[in-house]
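User: Reviewer 2 asked us to show a designed sequence for the structure in our supplementary figure. I'm pasting the structure tokens here. Could you produce the per-position amino acids so we can include them in the response letter?
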């Protein structure tokens, strides 16, 4: 979802909401420290935009929902989005072909997948997001690449 500001900002890859939570889900293919940095920058930018110009973000999301619903059968339409005081969450998803060991299929620890630079950057940025009022989650998703 890209929102027009002075420059285009990709608000998130997936936006999820209920009456109790709002999630901005950011997804990137893990390509080392530069890719991780881009993912974190996107998360900070969207959190800052939502906190500083919530009405603009709310209107943008509502227009997207109305547009989606107008193209669909009325039996499958999104619920109207309304921000009240839901918990705000950032979910960082890194797609990595090495996220799981080959045999047996066991999820690897973050320390096996991230460089020390990435771990420091993630820690610092998560602390920033927390200070902005967001809960933060990091997960790896295995890629189907060989």
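Assistant: Here is a per-position design you can include in the supplement:
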């Amino acid at each position: 979802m890209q929102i027009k500001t002075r420059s285009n900002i990709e608000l998130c890859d997936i936006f999820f909401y209920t009456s109790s939570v709002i999630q901005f889900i950011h997804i990137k293919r893990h390509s080392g420290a530069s890719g991780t940095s881009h993912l974190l920058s996107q998360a900070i930018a969207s959190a800052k935009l939502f906190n500083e110009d919530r009405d603009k973000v709310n209107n943008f999301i509502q227009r997207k929902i109305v547009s989606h619903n107008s193209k669909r059968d009325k039996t499958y339409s999104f619920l109207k989005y309304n921000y009240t005081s839901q918990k705000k969450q950032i979910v960082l998803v890194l797609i990595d072909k090495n996220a799981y060991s080959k045999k047996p299929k066991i999820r690897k620890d973050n320390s096996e997948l991230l460089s020390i630079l990435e771990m420091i950057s993630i820690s610092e940025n998560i602390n920033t997001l927390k200070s902005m009022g967001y809960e933060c989650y990091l997960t790896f998703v295995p890629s189907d690449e060989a």
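For the response letter, you might also mention the following. The beta strands are 2-4, 8-10, 14-17, 21-29, 87-96, 134-142. The radius of gyration is 17 Å.
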